[in-house]
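Entry:
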Amino acid sequence: MVVEPISKEFNDEYLTGKGLDTNFFNPTDVMQYYQVSNYGGLTADQIFARLHDFSIASYPPRKLTHIQQLTILFYKQKLFVDYRDHLYESARDNDTRRLSDYHDDLLASISFERLKDDPRKMSLQKILYNKGKFQKEMNDTISAP
């Protein structure tokens, strides 16, 4: 399975808050956008495990000190589709901040949210989709020192 940013520049701007209008983008509630390929033949549990490992390695909770919530959206990579054209407006204008024209291409989402009663912990929610419809969900609490 291969995971690549849809736009590394946009993800970097959203993560750091640099270059984005804070009237539209909350720097403590961050989105990241990726595309995934070569996952055919993997079970839902294998996809979950690999995306979980990718997310923890790419966004170690101990380094998310300024972030209250981080949501990572994983879209199926498609030939001749450039999701980058839709990132800014989707992140700014949609309540869910998903790529509205590509609802059926959403493969998974992983969200880290700092617990209000214990900021050293985060809830971790993983959702797998099949053609835009909920397929499987897993929830956990992790340490975020």
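The chain has a mean pLDDT of 87.
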